[in-house]
Structures are given as C-alpha cells and as structure tokens.
C-alpha cells in the first residue's frame, strides 16, 4: 500500500528489548553494538496489573505489549478520547506459563502415566484455572487495550514476521478510510517460551542461526501531525514461493523476491538507509546484496543485535529505523523484514521534523 | 468509491452436517448437536457435553477413511483437527465459487487460534523439564531439545491453517491469520473484505475454524463459569446458564468480480470494549459501536435478519440484546433474530464465520434460521427471535455479530446484490 502525500505521521515510539523499556535512542546502541545480548527480559514497572485475576490471565507477551502501549501513548500525549484510538498488533502464540502446565501434569500422574480421570479429579485444582486464557493470542492486544482504554478499530494478527506488517497495513488503511484518526501499531512476542523453542528447533531455525529473543514495540500513527518522528510512506507484504511442506523459501528465491519487492515499495525514490531484519543465516545471505542494489549509504541488521522476537521483530526494526533517520539526518529508509514465516515485509519510512 | 465485494462460494462442516446445505437444513429444523462428550473421559469436568463433528475427517491428503477420533499415533503425528475441518469447508466453498484469478491475486484470510498440543506432548515436555510441579527451565534446555522432533509444532501454530489452505488452492496473495478469539472468523472476513476493497487481491478465501472440544478448553471455560452446568445451549432463553463448546469450520469465497453472486459484503467494523478480558461491558457500548460502524459502512440498507453472537451466557445475551435494540431502533419490528450456537455450540475462532453463513442464507435464500434451544425468551432479551423452525421471508440485508473474550467486537452487513 502506497500512502498519499507525505505518508502517515508517526509521532511516538516505544520499545522493550534487552536494553529495557525505551522511547528513542535504540538506534545509536544498535550502531555501536552496545546492546546486551538478547535474553529473558525483566521489564520495569508498571508491570502486570494489581488485579490478581487479570494477572493470572496475562502471558509474558501480553505484559510486554501493555508496557509498550503505555509508553507510546505517554510519548504521544494521547490522554484524551482514547476510546477512539485503534490498535493493530502482530501477536505470537507463546502462551501459557509452563509452571501452570507442569503443576497440572504432575498432579495428574497415576502409576507413571498421565491419567485424564486424575486430571479431572486433582489436576485441575493444582493449576491456575484461568491459564487457558493466557494462550489466546488476542489477549496480547486486549490486555493493553483494556488497561489503556483503547476501544477503536482493531485486529490481532498471528505473526512470525509478516503478520505484524499486515497489522501496520490495516492500521494505515483504517486511518486512510477515516475509521479512526489515531492508532497504535506494533508487535509483542517471546521466542524463549519452551514450546516455541521446541518448535523453532524442530523446524531447524536454531541450527541456522536464529537467535531467540523477546521484545515489543509500538508506534503511534495519526492522520496529521506538525512535527512527527517520521512518516510511513509505503507498507506491503510480499508472499514468497517456498517448496511444498517447508516454512521458508530457498535462499535464492528469497533473494530474487527481495529486490523487486524493495523497488516496488520505493517506486523510484532514492533510499539512504536499508534496515534488514532477517531471521537467521539463510535469510541474511539472501538479503546481503540489497543495500548495494539500492545504493544505500548505510545498512543495518537489527536481528544481529536484537535477536529474533517473532511478532515483535518488524516493529522493533521500524522503531530503530525512525530513530536512525533522526539520528543521522537521512530522508528515507527501507525496512525489510524476513521472518520465519518465509514472507517479506517491506516498509518505507521517511524522516519527520518540521 | 469502494470496490464491491461479492460472495461467490460457501462451505461448512458442522456438528450437524458435512456440507453447508446439509447443515443449513438441520439448522432450519431447529435441531441441536449438543451431546455428551465421548472421545475422552470427562468425569469430574465442569461441563460434560459438547457439539462435536461426528463425520470422518480425511487427513490432509493422506488418509480419508479414518474415524474422526481414531486412536492417535505417537505424540502429535496425528493431523491437527483444525486443518482437517478447515480443508473440508474450504474445499466446498472453493468448488462452489468457480473463480479464476492469477495466484498472486488470490488471498487467504483465516480466523484461528493455536492448535492444541496433545496430552502426550504436554506430558513429554513436562517430564523433560523435571516432571515436578515446578518447570525446570535449565533441565528443559538440556533434555527437551531431543523431544522437539516429536512435536508436531507446525500444526499447532495458528498460521498453519492459512498456510495449508493457501497451498491447497494455489493462493500467492496475502495470507493472514487473524487471532481475535471468538471474533476471529468474522474478523477474517472483515480483513478479506478490506483487502479486496484496497486492491490487495481480487479473490479471497475467508473464514474460521474452531476445534476446541478438548480437556484444556473444557477446563478453562468451565472453571471460568462460562459453560452451561445444565449442558444446554439456549441463547436468550430465561434458563440459559452458559455456553457449550462446539467445533467446525466455515468459509466463504469473496471476489471483486460479481459472477453469479447473489450477495455482497456491504459493511464491516471492528471495535474494542476496553473493559474486561472475560466479561462484556454491561453498557454494551463496544458492541453497539461495532454494529453502527458496519451499518454506516454499508450505507442505506434495510436489515431483515440479525445473526446474533448469542453465547447463552447470562450477561452476554442481555447486553447484546439491548445493544441490538438500541442500534436498530424503529427498524426492529421488521427484523428477525437468530443465534446458531444453540445448535452447534460455540466454535470460538470459527464462531463468527458460521454466523456469517447463517446471515448469508437469509439474504440469498430467504431462510431466517432459528435459535435452537430457545423456548422461553428472557424478558431481558426481548427481540423478534426466530423460535422453533426457520422463518421464510425475503431479506434485503442481514447483520452478523461476533464478540470475543478480550472485548473485541466485529460486525458485518451482508446484502442482496443490487
């Protein structure tokens, strides 16, 4: 989707990474490679809600999402008419606390075997009865929306990369169509959940250089602003052909798809900065030549420093890019994410300011 | 000028029928598929009934003659039930649509939540992590990697359904998985509609699937107090006391080209309650805004039928009924209201999609499907309900509601093609 005029203004950004909760300044640390290694996050307050029932319903990703939503809203100073604000997020399926599952299973054992009858009698009493709700993917979006009073148009897209780009596409469409004037858009996820780790291992991602991480980012976009951080000029998801039965395309196919996708999104405009978010070595290799083809002055690989946090990865790359454009005083950047879902997400961002 | 979005094909597999026509005919008679759970031991569970699909489900291009709940192979090698259900419904819709478009102009939009790992998997993962009541992350790191090859993780992923359907029909356009709990299926149809309107694709397979008749969901919903203790789903009835879990899949094929379509998606809207994760806003503001948004988007249409979300829970039904009354106002006497969950249970991620098919039936076939289980309407839920069997009348346009845990609301308007 190519947006009319200058594009849609982004007026605030909030990120949560191993470096902590931050609005801006992430780009400099990415350039300096001074970020801590991707690891399990210990986010600062405000943390999970006080309401114990709500807390029990809240997965880590939901918690991360709520934090960056609050950060973006505060930076945007969107204190009024929050019920009209839209919310579009890429979300993962990294759900239930394993402690809960482990307790249920341990209490359900009989003669060394899992017993459904015993599960019904005793297992259920051993775990948080609300844990099933931690695995509902939309709760990653809805917790934050409830805590912050966001009640506008919305959608939660399951994402291993491009779902988050689709969230941005739908947020832009909602603003362009007048369904809302302001929206939060982003992603939150953890690749460190045991079931997700097992899944990534099974599919061979870990052996091929995927660095599992967790994180979140939210951008506040609006229909008009006088001095925004930047503008979204174009956003598009490019499906990439892959062999039947595999999740990711071959390196050569991804390479062949990347250049036309980038040129299509840029529509002949020059591009000073290229920000890449490849999931691992094969995707990185496929995108290697892109900065040169686009004659970009600078190329940054956010996955090398921030790791792969699945639904959060593209949104973190956008946040870093907006920061880079301001920090380096460059007019335009192309952000290309190639997540473990195999498709390409392309976003063109322009520098803001008066 | 918005691009028009025509409905070219429909398909469903439900606890009442293997196809949409078979399901529709059973629904029109007011039948219910709710019955005691047979495929696992429900002793001690908060609810012991469900609406399950009793028909054999062919596996994904592998098996075609196994009973739906045949003994499982080790770990998660058995096909994810969501995939089997979705394939059946999508095949039916795709065959009926007879559309042609370049692969890059065909999109797939699916409302789905995560598939469920089997108990064998959960058990194995737990044992790898020490097997005690505490999850031992360190031990898991050492031991569980070896298990990874035995976890059918790709099937557990929410995106597995959309990816598999895209491969099946040769779609190379947008492939999206919308995870909005009980509103997912309807929200997927909204996303597909928007994608066609924006020109991102010309044809879209859209719908939802739910396969949640499993111990985790019976436990989760049951302990929350959301399931019927009586084991009856009777939306808007005075005796309603919760919903019954169901399963199934429903899909439509939408297209920018009219072909021989008789109906189109005229309006769509999604809102959030921003109130509570598991309870609706008692004021019904979010639900009302979703309905009004869809009606505004549709322009001037005369609503003749509403397919309500109708969960059969005390609060939800009363809140929705009041919101429908406020939204439709003076037009209410011309409307009939039905809710499909009394017949086929609550499909969670697939619920909105089967609701859409019911609304479509009113517009295309003039069949206003009834609310099974409803015999004594609650005075708090006064609406022009369809009770007993279906009512037949010409319907110009119908409204569909899907409201989710987490407070996400979706409404759609489907109308007869002018």
UniProtKB/TrEMBL annotation, chain A:
Coiled coil: none annotated. Pfam families: ketoacyl-synt. GO terms for molecular function: acyltransferase activity. Residues 54-208 form the Beta-ketoacyl synthase-like N-terminal domain. SUPFAM superfamilies: Thiolase-like. It comes from the Bacteria. This is Beta-ketoacyl synthase-like N-terminal domain-containing protein. The lineage of its organism: Bacteria, Pseudomonadati, Myxococcota, Polyangia, Polyangiales.
């Amino acid at each position: 989707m190519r947006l009319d005029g200058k594009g849609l203004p982004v007026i605030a950004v909030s990120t949560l990474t191993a470096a902590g909760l931050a609005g801006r300044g992430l780009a400099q640390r990415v350039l300096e490679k001074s970020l801590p290694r991707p690891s399990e996050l210990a986010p600062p307050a405000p943390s999970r809600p006080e309401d114990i029932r709500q807390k029990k319903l809240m997965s880590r990703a939901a918690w991360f999402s709520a934090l960056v939503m609050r950060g973006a809203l505060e930076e945007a100073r969107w204190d009024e008419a929050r019920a009209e604000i839209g919310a579009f997020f890429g979300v993962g399926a990294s759900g239930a606390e394993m402690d809960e599952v482990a307790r249920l299973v341990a209490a359900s054992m009989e003669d060394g075997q899992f017993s459904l009858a015993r599960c019904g009698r005793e297992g259920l009493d051993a775990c948080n009865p609300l844990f099933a709700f931690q695995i509902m993917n939309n709760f990653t979006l809805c917790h934050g929306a409830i805590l912050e009073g966001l009640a506008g148009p919305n959608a939660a897209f399951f994402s291993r990369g491009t779902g988050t780009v689709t969230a941005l596409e739908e947020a832009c469409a909602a603003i362009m169509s007048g369904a809302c004037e302001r929206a939060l858009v982003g992603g939150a996820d953890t690749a460190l959940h045991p079931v997700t780790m097992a899944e990534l291992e099974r599919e061979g991602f870990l052996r091929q250089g995927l660095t599992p991480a967790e994180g979140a980012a939210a951008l506040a976009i609006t229909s008009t602003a006088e001095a925004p951080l930047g503008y979204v000029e174009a956003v598009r998801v490019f499906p990439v052909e892959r062999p039947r039965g595999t999740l990711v395309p071959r390196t050569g196919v991804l390479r062949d798809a990347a250049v036309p996708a980038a040129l299509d999104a840029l529509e002949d405009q020059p591009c000073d900065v290229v920000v890449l978010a490849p999931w691992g070595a094969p995707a990185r290799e496929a995108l290697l030549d892109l900065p040169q083809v686009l004659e970009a002055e600078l190329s940054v690989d956010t996955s090398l420093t921030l790791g792969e946090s699945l639904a959060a990865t593209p949104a973190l790359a956008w946040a870093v890019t907006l920061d880079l454009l301001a920090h380096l005083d460059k007019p335009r950047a192309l952000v290309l994410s190639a997540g473990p879902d195999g498709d390409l997400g392309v976003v063109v961002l322009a520098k803001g300011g008066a | 000028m918005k691009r028009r979005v025509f409905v070219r094909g429909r398909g469903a597999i439900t606890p009442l029928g293997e196809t949409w026509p078979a399901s529709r005919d059973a629904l029109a008679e007011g039948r219910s598929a709710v019955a005691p759970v047979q495929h696992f031991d429900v002793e001690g569970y908060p609810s012991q009934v469900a609406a399950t699909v009793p028909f054999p489900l062919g596996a994904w291009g592998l098996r075609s003659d196994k009973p739906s709940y045949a003994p499982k192979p080790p770990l998660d090698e058995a096909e994810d039930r969501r995939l089997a259900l979705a394939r059946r419904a999508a095949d039916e819709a795709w065959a009926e649509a007879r559309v042609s478009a370049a692969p890059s102009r065909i999109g797939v939009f699916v409302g789905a939540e995560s598939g469920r790992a089997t108990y064998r998997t959960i058990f194995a993962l737990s044992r790898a992590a020490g097997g005690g009541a505490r999850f031992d992350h360190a031990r898991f790191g050492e031991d569980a990697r070896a298990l990874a090859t035995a976890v059918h993780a790709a099937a557990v992923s929410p995106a597995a359904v959309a990816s598999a359907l895209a491969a099946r029909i040769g779609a190379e356009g947008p492939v999206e998985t919308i995870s909005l709990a009980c509103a997912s299926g309807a929200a997927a149809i909204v996303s597909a509609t928007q994608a066609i309107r924006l020109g991102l694709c010309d044809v879209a397979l859209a719908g939802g699937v739910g396969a949640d008749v499993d111990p985790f969901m019976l436990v989760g919903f049951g302990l929350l107090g959301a399931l019927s203790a009586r084991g009856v789903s009777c939306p808007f009835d005075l005796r309603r006391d919760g919903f019954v879990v169901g399963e199934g899949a429903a899909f439509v094929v939408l297209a920018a080209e009219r072909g021989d379509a008789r109906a189109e998606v005229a309006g769509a809207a999604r809102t959030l309650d921003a109130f509570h994760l598991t309870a609706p806003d008692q004021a019904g503001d979010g639900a009302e805004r979703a309905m009004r948004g869809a009606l505004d988007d549709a322009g001037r249409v005369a609503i003749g039928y509403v397919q309500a979300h109708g969960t059969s829970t005390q609060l939800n039904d009363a809140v929705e009924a009041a919101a429908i009354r406020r939204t439709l106002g003076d037009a209410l006497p011309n409307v009939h209201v039905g809710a499909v969950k009394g017949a086929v249970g609550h499909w969670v991620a697939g619920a909105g999609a089967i609701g859409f098919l019911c609304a479509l039936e009113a517009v295309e076939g003039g069949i206003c499907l009834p609310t099974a289980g409803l015999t004594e309407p609650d005075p708090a839920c006064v609406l022009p309900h369809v009770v007993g069997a279906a009512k037949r009348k010409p319907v110009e346009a119908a409204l569909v509601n899907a409201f989710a845990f987490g407070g996400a609301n979706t409404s759609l308007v489907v109308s007869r093609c002018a």
